[in-house]
Specification:
By secondary structure, the protein is α+β, with helices and mostly antiparallel strands. The protein has nine helices and 16 strands.
Amino acid sequence: MGTTTASSHGATRIFRQGYADPEYVALTSRALALWEALEGAADEELIVRTGAVDHGRAEVVDAIAAALTDAGIPHETLSPDAAAARWPGIAFEGHVLARHGRSHPVRPRHRAVPHPGGTDGARRAALRHGGDGARRPRRRRDRDAVRRVHPPQLVRGGGRGSWAPALVGDLLAGRGAGLPAIRVTQEQPAHFPSRLPDQAWPSFVHWAADDDVYGLLTPGEGVKVGFHGTGPVVDPDHRDFTPVPAEAERLQAYVARYVPGVDATKPTFISCLYDNSPDEDFVIDRRGPVTVATGFSGHGFKFAPLLGDMIADLATGGAAHPRFSLSKPSPSGTP
């Protein structure tokens, strides 16, 4: 199974600290320190310091600014006109919040994500710290039975949260626990050809009146723009990878209005999966020998090295983070 069948694919991903939630802001700082340590261990650039900008609804942008202030993270507020003068590829509205050097495209393809036979930074760092770089089958427990899981199944089940309900739902139920209602959707962002030099592009999030939008440059491919979590609900084993025409037109109309630095008439659509819990918190917990991690889509990749530490600690006897545990009350107040 190729990486394009799930969530984490593509040559860049946004690292951003723009959360209104202080707990997630703190987690981004921990994750950034680990990304930088990984860069040092790999002796390779994995994150590119481009800066980032949030704009749109005042209540959201101002809450992000307050959380960044409390965390001591440098930022500035701008008027839409001042922001457009600085970044002419984007049309801004509402309140604008900018951060410099603290929000970066991460380079997952062939660099940040290990892959067989590759020269990626993560693999080289593992080799330097005693790993052998091999992609071995793993064992998966099914109550008292142990089954060997080979790489294709591992990528599909263990490594991709969209399959978590089918993969571990019954196992967890047998141990008196259950996953929250993980919603799996097929998203369709697109790359649009840039009319500007690469250095003209920050990563950006538009907290719009309707659906939230994100964007970032992918060098050599264009500016990636997408709606956040608006795609149709799908079975990850039975999806057509085909853009919904009405949504494709809506995205192009949005880009024509708010991203003037690209050619909105020439999109290259991408099909990817989102798996989200009802409150978009991660789900990371363990019951007996079963460790589950899901609900990362839309904002999980930036935390990858931190999540790896958390999951490894959990799988070897550590305690679950209370916010991400299976016993946390649901958003409706019921367990």
